[in-house]
Fold this sequence. Notes:
Elements lengths: L53 H14 L3 H16 L3 E4 L5 E2 L4 E5 L6 H25 L17 H8 L6 E5 L3 H4 L4 H13 L4 E6 L5 E7 L1 E7 L4 H5 L6 H4 E4 L16 H12 L12 E5 L1 H17 L5 H8 L1 H19 L8 E2 L1 H31 L1
Parallel strand pairs: 1-9, 3-7, 3-8, 4-7, 9-10
Antiparallel strand pairs: 1-2, 5-6
Amino acid sequence: MASNKTTHSNPNMTFHSLAKPAEEAPPQNDNGETAGKAPAVSPGPSFPTDVLPTQVGATVKAFADERRISPDFVAGALIGAGSAAIGNRARVLGYDGATEPTNTFVALVAGPGTRKSQALLVAKAPLMRIEDTLQAEQGEHKSPSNPSARLLLSEFSEAGLLDELEGDAGGRAVLVDELTGAFANFSGQAGLKARGLLLQGYDGKPYRKRTATGRLNHVPALQISVLGCTQPDRVPAIVGCARDGLAARFLWIAPEIDPIAATAKGSGPTADLEAALLRMAHIEPFADSARYAREILLSEAARAPLKAAGGRWVERQKGADPMQRDFLARACHHSVRLGAVIAQLEHSLSEKDGAIAELSAGDIERAIALLDHYFLPMGQRTFDLARAAARA
């Protein structure tokens, strides 16, 4: 099995044993550097697969072993696949009455030969087949609540995005082998508009715009999930010069990993994953586009750990560099989305239909642990890699 340079010291680790967050790096200046020192790259934590629920954890380990892929990349691929399959069919209903979409932006970052594209294929292949299945079902029985039966986006220009998303409340996903193709190659005003649409797609809100010819573009829910790969020296091109919040929207996965010469010894639990993702894509939304998504209740018991974590993340912003500060500001949103996607994956991998009823305290605690001990330090590592690449 492909492995990272760092490994778990405790094979029986659970999310309860991760209660204490990882220690923070020393305060940095506005350029993300410690005064008087050359920029350093933070170490890469190993993905804590034992924090994951039973079925999801077993699926990650099986794909990693059979296909010789880093567990970090497989976990990221499953999160991205689950987010894409759910689309806008379900959202988390918070105690303030607002809903949180479940779409995620996930980036797999490593040098060539590290099998990150093979991890992407774990998600992409079944989603493409599921999209074919949904379109065939639509031809047999047209559903007013799912007019397009589409999961994936193929166009990244402003006109192309709006054309594909027109009238669709179901949400879409961008799955790409190289993220610079979707986020970095935007030149001029038209490119900035397309990038802006993808950024707005993180929030999943309605979108209306009247064109110069008077045509009204209407997207009931501009909601986009992203899963893609890139190399460390290309991260600055994706993040861009303008701090528009793109970096903070991503869950960055950049393990310390060398090129892998071994080939896959098996396909892994492909059929089980595809069946689970199809169950998620079959979550029946409401027919009314104004109230499309099914509601996953944020349970009463989940509020306390989320509030406590939010307080800690606000305090940590005071000593963080600008990009990490933006990430910390979005950490509560990340934790709710992560918790919902992983809980729904577990539900569907357990051969259960429909959306989960609620997000429990355990679901939120698991997501908080993943943020504290993996995604926050991994975000810092990715930003360090980007700064080092920009200076090279």
